[in-house]
Model the fold of this input.
Amino acid sequence: MDKLDVESLFADIQSSINLLQDESEILSLCLEKIIEILQGERGFIVLNDKNQVKLMAYAVHHVDADILLEGEAISQTILNEALKAVKPIVLTDAMQDPQFSDTTSVVLSGLRSVLCVPIRSADGIYGVIYVDNRLRTCAFKKEHLAFLSGCAEKISG
Done:
């Protein structure tokens, strides 16, 4: 499989779907593959609940799901900006970015590289895929954004 081939990734995941029980397990498998391919440190997939009232964590990698959407484990500012702006957030060094560098979670976690891509549905934003790396600046490139955006399209479809 080509490292950044969305179709191959989802074909691989599709072959495992019959063994998985629910949407959360499928999204967890998807996230693990995304983290592996992008060499991310942490990540999550959050989706709106059935009533479109609040986001719920469906898949997490090296983030505590219980405090994901409430605490400072991840940048709520980055997450909210991706949801509000309805466009991907790409940060090569969040600690140096004027929009995010003074937020508590960015400072406390020493956040560097971030990709945060909204998942769209016919009704608007359905959720977000988030991948970060606290160790390396410039960890993600344009092709990584294209790959993650393709993954978001597949998840929403």
Notes: The chain has a mean pLDDT of 84. The longest strand covers residues 124-133.
